């Protein structure tokens, strides 16, 4: 913890308690990495603290910035981080109040300024701050960092002052568990796995067997039902393996009714033609095959039944192997 350069009028000590310490410890044991992008990337784990010792009726401003942990540049070699020369100091500032910090103004919490009772009523989260390597960020919630440099987040508590005077810095807090190396791509695969496992926004990258939340699980039957129920029976895909066949043969809902049909491969006399094709065989729903002769007496429909259109209609003959190979006229 860094002490303020200004004396406090109130002698009550201010305490900040880091939240999610167990999660931070897991990352710290592997050397935490945070991603930088041009558009800005949010931190995970999120910096969250509980506050004690503020005056409930005094206005406070909470700010966040990042300071270098050392004077080195880092690289990841043979499964471990090693120093790799001197740090790049072009992105650093020497501030009278905050000391050595990265360029740009500290990030101000969106709820600042607010009364002490507000800050102490719930956990204070810095979930909206984004880390970037863009030289000139366009948004106030973007913090410029250098890749392959090690940083520590710092939370500054300032007391709001009226009459247009600058806010008074009361105290600055740092937490050893929250230091990290800024990267443009994760170097340690174990860090990647931890991020995917614990970050709620990374559920899509989890393997199905690793998911514990019901909503994150992919129900293959529901997927097939949703995407294939609207297709005609002759366009249904054939399963490529036993598990897919078991899944796809369970429930297919008819789009126009609530009836449920069980599906199975269509064999019998059509089997030889399906299997001889270069295309994969079709999965046909177990329902009566439409008979083309049921529509033998149906007439074609043209717009407005215009005579010129009707003149193009003529009788044609369709050969079918029925009734001892006698032709049938339509």
Q: Nearest-angstrom radius of gyration?
A: 34 Å
What would CATH call the architecture of the largest domain? Sandwich
- Biggest β-sheet strands, sense, barrel: 8 strands, mixed
Helix content: 10-25%
- What portion of residues belong to β-strands? 25-35%
Q: What is the number of strand segments?
A: 22
CATH superfamily membership of the largest domain: Transcription factor, T-box
What pattern of helices and strands is seen along the backbone? EEHEEEEEEEEEEHEEEEEEHHHEEHHEE
Q: What fold name goes in the CATH topology slot of the largest domain? A: Immunoglobulin-like
Mean pLDDT: 74
- Give me the number of helical elements: 7
Number of domains: 3
Domain T-box: 18-207
GO molecular function, one term: RNA polymerase II cis-regulatory region sequence-specific DNA binding
Pfam family, one: T-box
Protein name: T-box domain-containing protein
Please summarize what this structure is.
This protein is an alpha+beta fold.
Word description of this protein:
The protein is 15% helix and 27% strand. The protein has 330 residues and is an alpha+beta fold. It folds into 3 domains: 2-187, Transcription factor, T-box (Immunoglobulin-like); 220-290, no CATH class; 292-301 and 305-329, no CATH class. The longest helix has 10 residues, at 189-198. The termini are far apart. The relative contact order is 0.14. It holds the Pfam family T-box. This is T-box domain-containing protein.
């Amino acid at each position: 913890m860094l002490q303020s350069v200004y004396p406090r009028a109130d002698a009550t000590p201010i305490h900040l308690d880091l939240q999610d310490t167990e999660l931070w410890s897991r990352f710290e044991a592997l050397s935490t990495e945070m991603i930088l992008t041009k558009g800005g990337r949010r931190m995970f784990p999120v910096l969250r603290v509980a506050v004690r010792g503020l005056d409930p009726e005094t206005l406070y401003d909470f700010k966040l910035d990042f300071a270098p942990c050392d004077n080195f540049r880092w690289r990841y070699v043979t499964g471990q981080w090693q120093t790799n020369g001197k740090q790049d100091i072009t992105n650093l500032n020497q501030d009278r109040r905050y000391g050595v910090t990265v360029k740009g103004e500290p990030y101000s919490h969106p709820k600042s300024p607010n009364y002490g009772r507000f800050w102490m009523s719930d956990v204070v989260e810095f979930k909206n701050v984004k880390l970037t390597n863009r030289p000139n960020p366009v948004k106030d919630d973007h913090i410029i960092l250098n890749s392959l440099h090690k940083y520590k987040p710092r939370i500054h508590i300032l007391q709001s002052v009226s009459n247009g005077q600058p806010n008074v810095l009361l105290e600055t807090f740092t937490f050893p568990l929250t230091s990290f190396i800024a990267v443009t791509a994760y170097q340690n695969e174990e860090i990647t796995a931890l991020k995917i496992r614990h970050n709620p926004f990374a559920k899509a990258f989890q393997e199905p067997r690793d998911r514990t939340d019901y909503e994150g699980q992919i129900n293959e039957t529901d997927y097939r039902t949703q995407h294939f129920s609207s297709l005609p029976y002759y366009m249904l895909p054939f399963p490529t393996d036993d598990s897919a066949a078991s899944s796809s043969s369970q429930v297919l809902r008819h789009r126009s009714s609530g009836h449920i049909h069980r599906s199975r491969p269509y064999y019998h006399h059509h089997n030889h033609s399906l299997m001889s094709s270069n295309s994969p065989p079709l999965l046909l729903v177990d329902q009566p095959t439409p008979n083309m002769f049921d529509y033998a007496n149906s007439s074609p429909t043209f717009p407005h039944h215009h005579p010129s259109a009707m003149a193009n209609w003529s009788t044609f003959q369709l050969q079918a192997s029925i009734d001892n190979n006698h032709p049938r006229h339509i």
